[in-house]
Amino acid sequence: MAGGAKARRLPRGVRERQMVDAAVRCFARSGYQAASMDEIAESAGVSKPLVYLYLHSKEELFTAVIRREAQALLGVVAEAVVDRRVPPDERLWAGLMAFFTFAAEHPDSWTVLSRQARTHGEPFAGEAARMREEITAFVAGLIGEAAREAPGGAGITGRDVDALAQALVGSAESLASWANETPGVSAREAAATLMNFAWSGLGNLMKSERWSPRRPLPGSKVTG
């Protein structure tokens, strides 16, 4: 019996990973408020006191979930865009593919990051915001590189780049959630949809072709 008990004793890191894996599933399925430590412990195959011993509280466990899954997502996106020998559009495509593939292959992780983390206040929302800021910085860097390389890109300001990056990341987040909830939509299809939508518009900007309304909105003042 003692030998069997010893054989079942796993390293702390392995046990903790099992608990966080279980927490991802439970938080995605039940939400932060409804998920219980009993449910998480049962899913992980450990006792509830052991969960508290390793991760101290439900809040700390949820924070650990957000941090781990955010770092995993950031890691795959960063790895996809790291090769600076590749043109900016190809790097953006690779980054989008990595982003949508992660969301598709880890739907529970994406649910926690895109919904649960943002709806329960600090510190959870702050963790999600940091992840978003890092991804937006990647995208802004790629758009900025493309602008510098394009013949007409000098007309694109830093503010333009930041705004475009925010818009692209926001669209990617929304599209990833829609794709996960819509049968038959692949990560590649979602990435291609956004790439075609975004890069076509960026292409016009690179040529200094900006859209503007042909007539003022009702009630607006015409200046100039």
Explain what you see:
The protein is elongated, with a radius of gyration of 22 Å. The chain starts with a helix and ends in an 18-residue tail after the last helix. 73% of the residues lie in helices and 0% in strands. It is mainly α. Helix 5 packs antiparallel against helix 6 (88-105).
Strand content: under 5%
Rg calc = 22 Å
Number of helical segments with 4 or more residues: 10
Which structural class do you get from the secondary structure elements?
mainly alpha
Global morphology: elongated
**Stretches with pLDDT under 50, minimum 5 residues:** 1-7
Describe the structure concisely for a colleague.
This protein has 224 residues and is mainly alpha-helical. The chain contains 10 helices and no strands.
Write the layout of secondary structure elements.
Layout: H1 2-8, H2 12-30, H3 37-44, H4 48-55, H5 58-80, H6 88-105, H7 107-116, H8 124-149, H9 158-181, H10 187-206
Helix pairs in contact: 2-3, 2-5, 2-7, 5-6, 5-7, 5-8, 6-7, 6-8, 6-9, 6-10, 8-9, 9-10
